[in-house]
Amino acid sequence: MSDNRGNRGKRANSGQGGQGGQDDRGGAASGSWLTRPPKAPRPGRIVAYLALVVLGAVVGTAGSLVQAAWFPGGLVLALLASAGLFLGARRATGTQLGAVSSAVGWLAAIVVLSTGRPEGDGVFAAGIGPLVYMLGGMAIAVMCATMSRLPHPAAGRADLADRR
Question: How many CA atoms lie within 13 A of 102 on its CB side?
């Protein structure tokens, strides 16, 4: 009998036998992230992302009402609330999907509110304020979703305050 310990990950990566990206033990072989099976999302994360969609809809609805009520100050307040939501969702989840999920709820709310009714009633009036709110909010959502993560400081490194 020969010992196969040295060949365990090699067959899966070389294309000679193996089970498509798995080694002899049944585990995932080291390779590209494209060949690894996807991880199942945890139920808590799914609930958190759905809660962020609902929170985005609430902030979008509130911002739509506030930006028109107190024009210059309300517009700034609505955009700051949207930015706080998108950035907070990104930081809370640690992923881009957090900012995207809150932006989806926000965008859905403002699209529904921007469509007029058959009677002619609508939340958004004609003017520059609603346009700045919609385009500015979308720009902020894209910025928050695409910004890079800050690297975590390495363990054992001194703080900047200690380096004086």
Answer: 29
**How many Cβ atoms sit within 10 Å of the Cβ of residue 133?**
24
d(CA 31, CA 35): 7
Model confidence, pTM: 0.65
Helix 71-93 × helix 96-114 angle, to 10°: 150
CA dihedral 37, 41, 42, 47 (to 10 degrees): 180
CA distance 53 to 51: 5
The string of pLDDT tens digits covering residues 128-163 is 878 888 889 999 999 988 887 656 555 555 555 555
Cβ contact 53:102 at 8 Å: yes
What tokens were used for 30?
Answer: 């080291």
CB atoms within 10 A of CB 140: 21
Sign of the torsion formed by the C-alpha atoms of 35, 40, 45 and 50:
positive
Residue type, 92: A
Could you tell me which residues come within 8 angstroms of residue 94 by beta carbon, excluding any fewer than 6 positions away?
149
